[in-house]
Write a structure and sequence with these properties.
Layout: E1 14-19, E2 25-30, E3 33-38, E4 43-49, H1 50-53, E5 54-61, E6 67-77, E7 83-88, E8 93-99, E9 106-110, E10 113-117, E11 121-126, E12 133-138, E13 148-149, E14 159-163, E15 169-174, E16 187-190, E17 196-201, E18 207-212, E19 217-222, E20 228-233, E21 241-246, E22 252-257, E23 261-266, H2 285-288, E24 291-292, E25 295-298, E26 305-310, E27 314-319, E28 324-329, E29 335-337
Parallel strand pairs: 20-24
Antiparallel strand pairs: 1-2, 2-3, 3-4, 5-6, 6-7, 7-8, 9-10, 10-11, 11-12, 13-14, 14-15, 15-16, 17-18, 18-19, 19-20, 21-22, 22-23, 23-25, 26-27, 27-28, 28-29
Length: about 350
């Protein structure tokens, strides 16, 4: 369904889409500037034209506050792609500029930390005042800017994760144990035999999900013990996994790929996931023992999209072609498109802008 609120996106060359930390909003980075949308109900909340920001390649929201982290990219840039700009929507101006020695691959924000990923480095800053570099880490070549940070200040685990030096590994850094200029001892998880394609963290920082460039398996890890909790099979054919997200309670996980299908897995009660009946005959070994998605739905084939969980067992998928998909699933594996019959009034907190 191409809804009126985002129908404009398909005509404006969307470059990137990213959810905020609670998955209740998303930023659409475009050749013509930046748009901020609320998910439930779906409505545009802010509109920044190319005259102000130029074309935008990345935007990291800070929940629903007035702060946006912006990185230029595309064909109509106003700023260099090695410069991070913080925009204050209340002041209607850029309030901070950080310049690095190479292009910025990713930016992650939480209420007390700022993380910037470059091709071969991760930089961690205190935030918001003062914004000072705490430490930097050399990484494996990371063209996708794979990097995630536990979003809650109250999270059980205050960590940042990114590709380790070894092929297919994930490095974990404990932010709670770092001091100015000093980082904690490096800890790795040997997650895959191939290069990583996607990393995700749950809200509490206790679970890490990984996928490799093979794209057939998603593995979920305990960030404390570094043990594998479950292995999930997205499919049998290689695919480019573009997005993984946990539900807020970490009971479920969703992922999207270039195959045009969004998969939903049970993480807490893995017995809900589908299994092949042929495993009783032991003919397929580990493949036959795989856990397949509890439910799935299809978006436009070969159209890149991001996915996340909404309220009441719903999953949202937003595609670069401007289509917005919302499905509701149950533990029996049924998955149905939800009709968009009405919009509810938005009740915002005092410190929320969007």
């Amino acid at each position: 369904m191409k809804l009126p609120a985002i129908a404009d996106m398909s005509r404006k060359d969307v470059i990137n889409i990213r959810f905020n930390q609670d998955q209740g909003c998303f930023a659409s980075c475009m050749e013509t500037g930046l748009r901020i949308y609320n998910v439930e109900p779906l409505v545009e909340k802010a509109h920044y034209d190319v005259e102000l920001m130029g074309s935008v390649a990345q935007c990291e929201m800070l929940y629903r506050t007035n702060i946006l982290a912006i990185v230029s990219g595309g064909s109509r840039t106003k700023f260099a792609d090695n410069t991070l700009l913080l925009y204050d929507d209340c002041a209607k101006k850029f309030v901070l500029e950080l310049t690095f020695n190479s292009s910025i691959r990713a930016v992650r924000l939480k209420r007390d930390k700022l993380v910037v990923a470059l091709l071969t480095q991760i930089h961690v800053f205190s935030f918001p005042t003062p914004t000072q570099r705490l430490f930097s880490i050399e990484t494996r070549t990371n063209p996708k800017g794979l990097c995630e940070m536990s979003p809650l200040v109250s999270a059980e685990r205050q960590i940042v994760v990114f590709p380790g030096h070894n092929l297919g590994s994930v490095q974990i850094v404990d932010l709670a144990s770092t001091e100015n200029g000093v980082s904690s001892a490096p800890i790795w998880i040997p997650a895959h035999k191939n290069e990583l394609a996607c990393i995700a963290l749950n809200q509490q920082g206790t679970r890490i999900a990984t996928a490799s460039i093979q794209g057939t398996l998603i593995r979920v890890w305990d960030s404390i013990s570094r043990t594998k909790l479950v292995e999930l099979r997205r499919g049998s054919d290689p695919a480019n996994v573009q997005c993984i997200n946990f539900s807020n309670d970490s009971d479920y996980l969703c992922c999207s790929s270039d195959k045009g299908t969004v998969h939903i897995f049970a993480i807490k009660n893995t017995n809900l996931n589908r299994k092949m009946s042929i495993t009783n005959f032991g003919l397929l070994g580990n493949y036959g023992d795989s856990q397949w998605a509890l439910a799935n739905f299809t978006v436009p084939p070969e159209c890149a999209c991001v996915c996340a969980f909404g309220p009441n067992n719903s999953v949202i998928a937003i595609c670069l072609d401007g289509t917005f998909h919302k499905y509701v699933f149950n533990n029996d594996g049924n998955c149905n498109r939800e009709a968009f019959d009405q919009y509810l009034d938005i009740c915002e907190e005092d410190d929320n802008i969007y």
